[in-house]
Design brief:
3 helices, alpha+beta, single chain, 4 strands, 51% helix
Length: 95
């Protein structure tokens, strides 16, 4: 087991138990057969790759949404003053 976890700004917001679970997810340990006290640690990159793929999907989604919103705003700016409508349910004005 990893006894020392270096300080990192991203880990400061996590509690100690969450930090240990995160490290356990990312670090694979194996014991050296000849010496039971020695353990080899290796970074498991699979969870990081999965998070990267997910973040890329989210980024593309929001880029598309924000581009469509920017196009809508530009179209509204060119169409003159907004037409005021009434909400059918409440009777209040919209826009």
């Amino acid at each position: 087991m990893v006894n020392h976890i270096p300080d990192a700004p991203i880990l400061d917001v996590l509690g100690d138990s969450r930090r240990r679970r995160l490290v356990a997810l990312l670090v694979e340990e194996t014991r050296v057969p000849a010496d039971g006290r020695v353990r080899l640690c290796r970074l498991n990159t699979r969870p990081l790759i999965e998070v990267g793929r997910w973040a890329e999907q989210v980024r593309r989604f929001w880029e598309t949404q924000l581009a469509a919103f920017a196009d809508y705003v530009r179209a509204q700016e060119g169409s003159g003053p907004a037409v005021r409508r009434r909400n059918r349910a409440s009777g209040r004005r919209i826009g």
